[in-house]
Amino acid sequence: MAPSTSSSSKYLDSSSIRWQWAANIACTRSTGTFGEPIELLYHQPETNFGRNGRGTGDSSLARDDDYTAETASEDLKGVLDFLNITQTYVVAHDKGVGLAAALAAKYRSLVKRASFIDYPLPGFGVYEASETPQPAWTAYLNWQLAFFSIPDVPEYFLMGREREYLTWYFWHMGYAGNSALSEDLLDIYTRAVQKPGFLRAAFKYFQAQWADAAFFNATIRPQPLGMPVLAMGGEASLSPISVIQTAYQDVATNIQYDLVPKAGHWVGEENPVWVANRLLRFLGEDNGVQSVDLSVLADQVTIPQQVAMGAILGRRRR
């Protein structure tokens, strides 16, 4: 297993969001930037790609200021539709789990298998319990979930101190402090949230927890997911395994649980080879999904709003 060379970023307009995405990678960093990821599906026949959600990386901010899992999952559905993908595996981490679970809840035949990593869905108890600070080190026993959930307050105190905030965040949520995070990556993540509006957008995902809980209680609780699900947590984060079981026992009927050794919240950075092999084993239990040839997009216009703007300007010139 070795790092892959990810393709250059591409952009697509869908659901009023300009998406940044890249083919031939299986995951992106949780801050929404494309670095040098481990190719989780290395040498597998299926097409795999990563995308940055609304308000992360170089994707655009949401015009409606809506960062709920239900709405953001429709953005992902739009990208899949554009790529003519009718069946897919989904691997999600942190807040991406909410989007993936919402997609699976609404389009059950679309998502063939799903892996949810180091994130308890709101509405099932564990997320809510994690908002009560306790004298412990791990991510889900600290203060940040409650702090981030307050509208306007987090960005008010953290704007201008993004690097210090991220340093603390990675330090407390890692297996071995900041050892897995290079200075170059920290710079990339800092620049990502320093763009106007992006720090606020990041916290909007946390402030959507009540809407997310209501959505999941209306969709998944009465009808748990039927596709195979692999729920994982880092041994120094969402653990012990009984916590993962409590978080997901009512989410899916066909579910496997595992702990990522020698990892905290940042499983992709701290133990990527173990995560890759575990995902390969889980996905390998299935007979696969259809591969999609994305090379046809190399010279294709994927930002149609630019064409529309050209038409408007053309009319004005006449």
> Over all CA atoms, what is the radius of gyration?
19 Å
Compute the number of strand runs: 7
Portion in beta strands: 5-15%
- Helix-strand topology string: EEEHEHEHHHHHHHEHEHHH
Low-confidence stretches: 1-7, 24-45
> Portion of residues in helices?
25-40%
User: Would you tell me the overall average pLDDT?
Assistant: 82
* Intertermini distance: 59 Å
How are strands sequenced across the largest beta sheet?
4-5-6-7
Structural class assignment = alpha/beta
Instruction: Give the biggest sheet.
Output: 4 strands, parallel
Overall body shape: globular
Characterization of the model:
It is a single chain. It contains 13 helices and 7 strands. The protein is α/β, with parallel strands linked by helices. A 4-stranded parallel sheet has the order 4-5-6-7, sandwiched between helices. A 3-stranded antiparallel sheet has the order 1-2-3. Helix 10 links the parallel strand 6 and strand 7. The termini are far apart. Mean pLDDT is 82; it is low at 1-7 and 24-45.
Secondary-structure map with pairings?
Blueprint: E1 10-14, E2 17-23, E3 49-52, H1 69-82, E4 88-93, H2 95-106, E5 111-117, H3 126-130, H4 144-148, H5 153-158, H6 162-173, H7 183-194, H8 198-207, H9 209-219, E6 229-234, H10 241-248, E7 255-260, H11 267-270, H12 272-284, H13 304-317
Parallel strand pairs: 4-5, 5-6, 6-7
Antiparallel strand pairs: 1-2, 2-3
